[in-house]
Specification:
about 350 residues; five-stranded mixed β-sheet; 12 strands; binds dinuclear copper ion; about 40% helix; alpha+beta; three-stranded mixed β-sheet; elongated; 8 helices; about 15% strand
């Protein structure tokens, strides 16, 4: 190969590599990692990405070189020289991809194994999913609905299950992600490395409220976590409603997860999946029932009367089944006394 051609090829390669590198580095493709696992997974991403950018640069350089140097010349109608095979080239283009793909496989499997390790004494938290909410149950038996609180630096083993359909648990900044499947106990390990609040997102289309199935993970310093965990025996509602009892508001917002789907101004919820509960009186009148009966029936047997514009089977699927009859009565009273 002529020296000039080689220099030309190298120059094209450098330019193509610079373009690929700029696209990779100047766009914030990945959130900054907030767990050990995410750090390792991002490493695999970048490892594979740099290999891809290198190959892209070489291929792009050869294509551009061929376009520039082998353009058909005026009046030249001859064929190219007949070439049959090139053993060295064939060995190279077989061996190089083999080495690269094997390297990616080895790096990935090491990371996969490390990210699955929960260590000797992980914090075990049961994550229960349900249309359209998350419940977090701690070793002391307490269940929370407002957030997943975890301590910095400790292995957290999440045991995912579902009460109805397939959901998933994903915190982009933690990178670890798994489906929550009815009848299965999928597990993921998270070791937080940064104090902060991160969104939890359901990534399986699980029904009308899927897009609203969000929660948050709060990473606390070990001391703040211990303080919260010790004092959290009796969770206090964060914002007591005006007019209704605070306990009923908590029941509405968290235990019953009603607020995930329903707008109800006294509870401060803005769900859009189900009917707006601020208009209960008008809806009861339309259904031709006394308000209290209407509310109770709508909770216990949601399909008995469907507010015009809504779909059967959405609410009856699962929510409310975990409520006791006294809790339902409490909810009915709360809704009846607070609705307009
Ligand atoms: Cu649960 Cu999507």
């Amino acid at each position: 190969m002529r020296r000039g051609s080689l220099l030309q090829l190298l120059a094209y390669t450098a330019v193509a590599f610079a373009v690929g590198a700029a696209v990779a580095l100047l766009v914030p493709w990945l959130p900054s990692p907030a767990s050990k696992e995410a750090g390792r997974i991002w490493f695999v991403y970048w490892f594979a990405t740099w290999i891809c950018i290198s190959i892209f640069a070489i291929v792009a350089a050869v294509v551009v070189y061929a376009l520039v140097n082998f353009r058909v010349k005026e009046g030249d109608l001859s064929d190219g020289p007949p070439v049959h095979g090139h053993t060295t080239l064939e060995i190279v283009w077989t061996a190089v991809p083999f080495v690269l793909v094997t390297a990616i496989a080895i790096v990935s499997s090491i990371v996969l194994a490390k990210d699955g390790r929960a260590g000797q004494n992980p914090l075990r938290i049961k994550v229960t999913t349900q249309q359209f909410a998350y419940y977090f149950t701690y070793p002391n038996g307490m269940t929370y609905h407002d957030a997943l609180r975890i301590p910095l630096g400790r292995h957290v083993l999440l045991d995912l299950e579902s009460n109805d359909v397939i959901h998933s648990f994903w915190v982009p900044a933690f990178a670890q992600k798994s489906d929550a499947v009815p009848g299965l106990h999928n597990k993921i390990v998270i070791t937080p490395t940064k104090v902060g609040t991160y969104p939890i997102i359901c990534t399986q289309l699980c029904g009308l409220g899927h897009a609203l199935m969000r929660n948050r993970a709060i990473v606390l310093s070990p001391t703040a976590y211990e303080a919260w965990y010790k004092s959290a025996g009796a969770p206090t509602p964060s914002t007591p409603s005006s007019g209704g009892s605070a306990a009923a508001a908590t029941l509405f917002k968290t235990t019953g997860t009603c607020g995930a789907c329903h707008t109800f101004t006294p509870a401060g919820t803005a769900g859009k999946v189900g009917p707006n509960l601020d208009h209960l009186k008008a809806d009861a009148a339309k259904a031709g029932q006394p308000l209290e009966n209407y509310v109770k029936e709508s909770i216990e047997n949601p399909d008995a009367y469907i507010t015009p514009g809504y779909t059967k089977g959405v609410m009856s699927g699962s929510c409310c089944k975990q409520l006791s009859s006294s809790q339902i009565d409490q909810l009915v009273q709360y809704l009846v006394t607070n609705s307009k």
